[in-house]
């Protein structure tokens, strides 16, 4: 149950908080030894496999249409789900089939190998509209919660932990009632913003230059790893964000548009000062000592073509936007965003779009509003914090 993809990570820094002493994760997770049976609806249940990609795509898009969700998925997106080596569909997924073998329900529990501050398990799933109101959704969600608790316990990471679900705010009320009845509470709120690009005479694009000799350059494979390091630094103080491993960073790119993506580099960084800065992480320090390029801000964009008909317009989507903490206040992230917006215009996209965490105190909403972005849809993350 929840939105197709988690909201993009656009720049909105918040201060980290001190974590109190915690009991072991195995104790806090309270994982059941066995998973609850799903008997409602008379479906046959088994784990999902890569052979299910076409059926899973059809089911997920049917659910999205019935729930009036503002997106659709592609075959490539679903195929890529099964390509990530850390996903364990044999134990972390389940699909329900009728007597004719039609897939009518599914559930997945998603965890990430890079979690180092909060161990998270996100729950995704849904039921075909033709078999709703039979109790399937309630039992399926109970399975997800139980499996999510097992995943957290099995991680062995004695960190703060979270079971999370994302829902569209205008989605089915019954779905949200099931989630809240299981003990989940609203924790974070997100909005999707769009900016009209069709009349630049009336609303010109911002002309932004980063300060201090920084350069905006097109994204390239050669700068990919440096961009990952910049992202991990930029979002280290962002609520709910975790560092990405190289394999995580390179996964989920079926819609990625490198020609719409830009990074800001410092050609002459003060290596001595950065190495002396306690906020410089070990991976960045190693890259600086090796003389690798230093990416200080970035804008990573995607093209979700399947969404165009649903939304009624074409758009470029800024999926990731951030600035290294040592370089904030130099308009680097804004310069990267402006370059991305120009790339959208050059490819005749009608709008620029992005998601933002509404709870951030950084003034991000005000910045986006000043650039002409307006709210279109909203979503909520509900969670159980352990």
From TrEMBL:
<dbReference type="InterPro" id="IPR016181">
    <property type="entry name" value="Acyl_CoA_acyltransferase"/>
</dbReference>
<feature type="domain" description="N-acetyltransferase">
    <location>
        <begin position="43"/>
        <end position="206"/>
    </location>
</feature>
<dbReference type="InterPro" id="IPR000182">
    <property type="entry name" value="GNAT_dom"/>
</dbReference>
<protein>
    <submittedName>
        <fullName>GNAT family N-acetyltransferase</fullName>
    </submittedName>
</protein>
